[in-house]
TrEMBL record:
Annotated EC: 2.5.1.7
Amino acids binding UDP-N-acetyl-alpha-D-glucosamine: 96, 309, 331
Subcellular locations according to the entry: Cytoplasm
SUPFAM superfamilies membership: EPT/RTPC-like
Residue span, Enolpyruvate transferase domain: 11-410
Name of this chain's protein: UDP-N-acetylglucosamine 1-carboxyvinyltransferase
Amino acid sequence: MNGLNDRIYIEGGHQLKGSIRIQGSKNAALPMMAASLLHRGVSVLKGCPRIADVFCMEEILQKLGAVTWWEDHDLYMDCENAGKWSVPFEFTGRMRSSVILLGALLARNGKGSLGYPGGCVIGKRPIDMHLFVLRKLGAVITEKQGFLVAEAPYLQGALVSFSKRSVGATQQGILGAVLADGETVLENCACEPEIQWLCRYMRSMGAKIQGDGTSEIRIQGVKSLSAGCIQVPPDRIVSGTYICAAAVTRSQIVLENPPEGELKAFLEVYRKMGGQYKGNSGKLLVNGKNVQSPVKLLETGVYPGFPTDLQSPVMAVLSTIEGESCIREMVFEDRYKAADQLQKMGARIRVQGNEAVICGVKTLHGAAVQAQELRGGAALILAALGAKGVTALEGYSFVQRGYEHICQDLNALGAAVKRIQE
Ligand SMILES: CC(=O)N[C@H]1[C@@H](OP(=O)(O)OP(=O)(O)OC[C@H]2O[C@@H](n3ccc(=O)[nH]c3=O)[C@H](O)[C@@H]2O)O[C@H](CO)[C@@H](O)[C@@H]1O
Ligand SMILES: C=C(OP(=O)(O)O)C(=O)O
């Protein structure tokens, strides 16, 4: 998207206060939507975030023949007639998560074809392990001019050992195995909470899955699945982003329903920066007034390690803490796109390979900056909140992939963020 609609203006320097409700999780909702294809009837996701990626997945389901509708934040998907099996590149190129539809299409139809997945450009992001697990389950997959074509008259349970932990490939394996003949054992699985949420949802449909949340997942194939219904969990990355908003403005806010238990590694780093927090009856009181300590080394990692999705939001905060901090990005090869833009705002960041050294400054200043991907874009908004003067951020549509109403949320807390609609 180009033009004014893709631009927001943030006037920095306002203290935040008040409380905020956390939207449903993007990375939990998307695989659940793919899983809904496995029931030939109506399934529902309650509290589903109304964000660009969810709308894109909804369009894909419609393209496959599903009928979908919303009741407030509840998304209904009638997949009775979703018997088409091909998704063109114009849809899959917009979103990384589209790739896990391959397992769902194979499980439902015995065949599926898909344009190559898009999503945030934060590294190479190959899909070798996605194809590996489906091939292990019996699929024959060919790749032609950016198009994947997979066929399997039936899928057969198998022992599959992943060479590294991948959230998407683990989900792909689960989707492919739930309706396969016999037992599947997935080894070296990712343990991210979104995998457990997918499994909870699929168990509500009658799937037999055990071990999610550990590195070994066992799936006993069943003949069919019934209607799914679940409350989409609150988004841990959005929660972390708003905690960073309190930290960068040295403010105190309340998150109404954050998944505190899923935020341990992040909260540990926030605490090292001088941030304080207190959980109380499902709410989290976050006090960023004493955020002032640099962090010697923050390493991202697979869950329960520090989430790579919160790396750039924390970089924005560290840019405002005097002294030297260091980040080591261990998951993606190219996830420092926000650093150049933060420098335009006066940040002092040196990126070398997978390390970023940040020499915090007392105050950042407003500038014209460009978001190039989702979380990097959110990081620029955070930096702008704490900066002196006005920041014009181009590329807001990247942020809208994952944040339902970040501008309204921040304004409700006292920020001054403006979007000029064409
Ligand atoms: C929609 C969604 O849930 N996205 C999340 C998901 O992305 P996604 O599922 O794409 O991330 P993965 O866990 O698969 O990626 C982890 C690492 O494995 C590599 N890899 C992955 C698959 C593969 O076939 N081969 C391979 O080498 C990737 O390039 C990366 O270096 O987990 C990431 C890591 O927590 C998060 O940053 C993303 O927000
Ligand atoms: C990288 C992300 O999303 P995706 O995997 O969909 O590109 C993200 O949510 O930060």
